[in-house]
Amino acid sequence: MKDIARRAGVSESAVSFALNDRPGVSDITRDRVRRVAEQLGWRPSTAARALSGEGAATVGLVVARPAGTLGVDSFFLQLISGIQEVLAERQLGLLFQVVEDVTAECAVYRRWWAEHRVDGVLVVDPRTDDPRPELLAELGLPGVVTGGVPDPGRPQRPGLSTVWADDAGAMASVVGHLHALGHRRVVHIAGLPGLAHTERRVRTLRAEAERRGLTEVRSVTTDYSDAEGAAVTRRVLGAEAPPTALVYDNDVMAVAGVAAAASLGFAVPADVSVVAWEDSALCRMVHPWLTALSRDTVSFGRTAARELLGLLDDGPAGTVQVPLPRLIERESTAAARTP
């Protein structure tokens, strides 16, 4: 409201009257205010609540992933549970939307800002070349990036906090476990390319393999779905020299991979060991139970929500590292088979 008043050369009360079509201003002033509001992207139909100073009492979350993969993704279900738990304590709502890509996600942020639909946002799936932090700074929309590793060479952006986990350390623990079991041919069935955490896991796998002298280690990206997880599993196990260990970036792909391996006559773990990145009930419903990286994702969501509430209470932006995911060794990993 202050920006509109300043540009239009009128008082804030005049802006309120004009945008809410109330008497008290001339038609000329009303038209000028509305033109300025339109230039700034303001939507008069939803501005009344913000003009009253009440705020939206809502936090936004946009996920740019294939919608079909979210219904079975335990990570997002648990993350949202933690977020909602904290928001409920403050009687705040969560506005959730699924979009096709980051461009569409940015458009949603612009619309929410223009309509004053949310007071702040939780940003997931940081990209290697991510336009969202700059956009949020431009809009003045507080946000918390979940999963983004802080850049020590870049100053903290005001109004933008980060909550992150050490994906590199987690991948190093997986490679160390498989190497100790004698595995030398490892395929990492990764998630979406372009995601910062996917790239960190791929880089760490490559670096750890090089450090340990492993030459037959590689990553293959997917869309996180069970269908692609199974398809890639069949493809890599059908090679002339198939891997002796498979590392999946989520539990759904790992379970699908076990079934795909069985369909080709590969027994887990006698012929191929399997590790799932996200531990969940699914990992304990398949036979054998899956070795998996475990973390408290609900707590991750709580932490992200609390950081955002801190920003909404005019607190400083910050960076919070959550505990390192812990490798739970179960029956799906064993010593590599000998030729």
From TrEMBL:
Keywords: DNA-binding, Transcription, Transcription regulation. InterPro entries: HTH_LacI, LacI/GalR-like_sensor, Lambda_DNA-bd_dom_sf, Peripla_BP_I. Residues 1-53 form the HTH lacI-type domain. Signal peptide: none annotated. It comes from the Bacteria. The keyword Signal does not apply. Coiled coil: none annotated. GO terms for molecular function: DNA-binding transcription factor activity; transcription cis-regulatory region binding. This is LacI family DNA-binding transcriptional regulator. The lineage of its organism: Bacteria, Bacillati, Actinomycetota, Actinomycetes, Kitasatosporales.
